[in-house]
Amino acid sequence: INSETAQKSIVKRWPKYAELNIKAFQKGVELGRVTLATSIEKIRL
Known about the structure:
Layout: H1 3-13, H2 15-44
């Protein structure tokens, strides 16, 4: 099972839950990028 197929079946079953989950995941990715960028900046300084 690939994650996309799993995601689609979850979306069908729990639209609200899936929407929140995807948003939380995206926020996590954004935070991860920010943290990475911040640590790179600190290393440069």
